[in-house]
Amino acid sequence: MESGGALDQLDPQLLEALQLDGRTPFSRLARRLDVSERTVARRYQRLRSLGLRIVGQPVPDRLGLVRWLLRLRCTPDAAGTIADALARRPDTTWVTLASGGTELYCALNTRSADERNALLLRKLPRTPHVLSVSAHCMMRIYVGTTSTWHATRFRPAAPAVDSGAVAGRSGPLTGGSGTPTVPSGSSAASATPLTLDATDRVLFAELARDGRATLPELARAAGRSPSSVQRHLDRLRTEGALSLSVDFDPELLGYHMATQLWLNVAPAHLRTVGETLATHPAIAFAAAITGPSNLVASGVFRTPADLYDYIDGHIGPLPGIQSIETAPTLREVKRLAPALP
Fold first, then answer.
1. Beta-bridge partners for 71
2. Where is this region: Disordered (predicted)?
């Protein structure tokens, strides 16, 4: 069905191809999906009408930012208001409500101790109706910058998109949820932070609004020539500083059970468990963190029974799992937003 109606098999295939690279031209998408370019364009516009966004995001490690996950417990009457206030902050990337509406999670990027302390030590502790705040530094991100689902859940039905399919692209491919293939915490990600100039910052701002903005559009916004803009894009992507993520409501794909998983893993097995979770189609995000739970993951499932089967069949057998806490997401207040202080 070309417009209106329910999603069919081609829609998730197109979404997966876009996750592999959000700026792939329609002509190349059409060849990979074995449909006409006109069909791809129509499907893309229909998905956009349903909320699809391609979002350009900074990769924190490469830009000298430290990524934090905040866990707040609030009174039930105030959680929504506090979540909305956090969502309006430019340094937050996603905010979700969970656990009966009394707990919320917030991810943010900070450049300095002063930025971190202003929120964690001064603002939040003085906020009425906030009962407790715990801050967890993300030491290593195994999969996902932020995303709503993992592309490989569709891999059996979708043709692969190879690295040579991307026009004007010299950087690494992105993974299932828009994360560069350079893993967070690797030697490349730990290198000297990339310095941004005014053109880079304009590109980040424009790609946050539309990750598929054309080269002429980006050139006009930056006041530079298209060739200059292309060089800046190539540099940002080659250096692993820019990721392109796909934002699409997983409920429209039949996944109604988004859940946060907090795991306590024996230190000797932390890397193994984190890297294993990153290969699971149900997991959109996984990171090693500081605090009592040393690994956090976000999973998307169709039903509570699927969540149970995942814990029983995939989490349970992993070595070193000492405890697990699950917190179903009630409402996503903010997701896939850029955070470039």
1. 105, 134
2. 164-191
* CA atoms of 299 and 142, how far apart (whole Å): 14
**Residue 331 Rama label (left phi>0; alpha psi -120 to 50; beta):** beta
Beta strands in 83-174 (DSSP E): 92-98, 103-110, 130-143
Alpha helices in the chain (DSSP H): 10-20, 26-33, 37-49, 79-87, 113-117, 198-209, 215-222, 226-238, 270-277, 304-310
Compute the Cα dihedral for 38, 42, 43, 44 and give only its sign: positive
Mean pLDDT of 135-143: 93
Residue 49 token pair: 């009408």
Phi/psi for 125 (5° steps) reads -60, -20
Q: Which two tokens stand for residue 148?
A: 């709503």
How many whole angstroms separate alpha carbon 258 and alpha carbon 303?
Answer: 9
Angle 235-65-340 from CA coordinates, rounded to 5°: 70
pLDDT for the residue numbered 5:
59
pLDDT in tens, 38-84: 999 999 999 999 999 999 988 888 999 899 999 999 998 999 999 99
Give the Cα separation of 286 and 15 in Å (integer).
21
Q: How far apart are CA 306 and CA 23, in angstroms?
A: 33
164 class by beta-carbon count within 10 Å (0-12 exposed, 13-18 middle, 19+ buried) = exposed
Question: How does pLDDT run across 283-319, given as a tens digit for each residue?
Answer: 989 999 999 999 999 999 999 999 999 999 999 999 9
Q: Which residues of 48-59 are buried (b: 16+ CB within 10 A; e: fewer)?
A: eeeebbbbbbbb
Each residue's pLDDT tens digit, 142-157: 987 544 555 444 443 3
